[in-house]
Write a structure and sequence with these properties.
Strand content: 5-15%
CATH class: Alpha Beta
Largest sheet: 8 strands, parallel
Number of helices: 11
Structural class: alpha/beta
Oligomer: single chain
CATH architecture: Alpha-Beta Barrel
Helix content: 25-40%
Number of strands: 8
CATH topology: TIM Barrel
Distance between the termini: 23 Å
Shape: globular
CATH superfamily: Metal-dependent hydrolases
Amino acid sequence: MYDLKPKTQNLKLFDSHNHIQDTRLFPMLEKVMKRAQLTGVGRMAVKGCCEEDWPKVVEIANRYPEACFAFGLHPWFIGGRSDQCFQTLKELLTTYPQASVGEIGIDHAIEDRDDADQEAVFLAQLEIARKFDRPVTIHCRQAWGRLIELLDQFGELPRGMLIHCFGGTAEVATELVKRGAYISFSGSITRPNAKKAGPAIRAVPDDRILIETDAPDLLPHNVVDGASCSVREERKNAFSTLENLESTRKPIPTEQDAPSTVLNEPANLRFVLAKAAELRGVSEESLSELTFQNAARFFNGEDHGRDIASCIERFFFFS
């Protein structure tokens, strides 16, 4: 059904940012994980976005102990937060000392938004990350200048920050790296109009570059033989054992009304790797090793004296 021949079979891949707890992927989590394994993805970082999806992140963490995971309130969902939101976040970080904070940030691409509220929620979560000594994953769209201002006002983040799905210029990347950021690139770099991607990727130092899928969104451009899951096919399979398919047309959670019937998933990280290596002018092998080590260092704290080899040795968390 899918082309699962691992073109990256000799590589170690670390998906530094995804949302496999999303209702479009979670019902077929086992398949998603298996396809990831078959295409070389040994580790991944699953990021919560709102109070409603944090329990699914916990479930994934319990089922796959070697997965990195995070809890945060994304700027898209701040309007629906409860009065207990930050207290719940603190309790989760206390319960799971290996968890990081994210996905959090600011987004000026939202038309109907409250910038003051976005920034207050963002800064409150930065403070929590600092108090609990955790890494932070940051979302930013069309607000790079303001993000840098806020980071400068806030001060040091002892465990550092990851700027996910970076879409800014090389100059912005350089400024963020100066402030201790890791820069992560997604399938958006594969788009034909991604003119800033090449200079930005080449501007990031070796020890700060990461790659991600941001699954289930940002499917790499022109994926033809990837492992991405067909919503229509998954729906068909879900009912294939029933006697009358047409009489059981209850939708499953993976259905969506969208221009494409294909979702992104961690198994497609190899396409991001290939494009990033091309733009950076290096081999896929060297970049996969580099990004794997960088992600392990960021999420597991090897910057603070731990032996990175101990993390790399256990990267096959699916086995």
